[in-house]
């Protein structure tokens, strides 16, 4: 099977994100539309229902390095959140989040956002006390 080059892959992801064809509770796009290398992305996650995150919008930054999609991007929350997979500066700990720790080339930015939302909704995480709404790192 042919390996899709990085920029073609990111163009596909950008098109899907801009058209809103992905998961309803997550969105993503380029931080700067002029970024020809498609390195810096913004994402949003709507807090899952029936959890302490409900009715909140979480903002994340995604950095797709030159080895993406062979290597996972780095992800950082802008919105303050308390979760076992997030450090005290908002960085997602790749070793804790399965889709980053066990990265597969077919994973996407959307995969990460959906998994973060599922992680938030997990029974052991959905009642963790959170910072006041609107706080940022």
Automatic annotation (TrEMBL):
<dbReference type="Pfam" id="PF00179">
    <property type="entry name" value="UQ_con"/>
</dbReference>
<feature type="domain" description="UBC core">
    <location>
        <begin position="5"/>
        <end position="137"/>
    </location>
</feature>
<dbReference type="InterPro" id="IPR000608">
    <property type="entry name" value="UBC"/>
</dbReference>
<dbReference type="InterPro" id="IPR016135">
    <property type="entry name" value="UBQ-conjugating_enzyme/RWD"/>
</dbReference>
<protein>
    <submittedName>
        <fullName>E2 ubiquitin-conjugating protein mms2</fullName>
    </submittedName>
</protein>
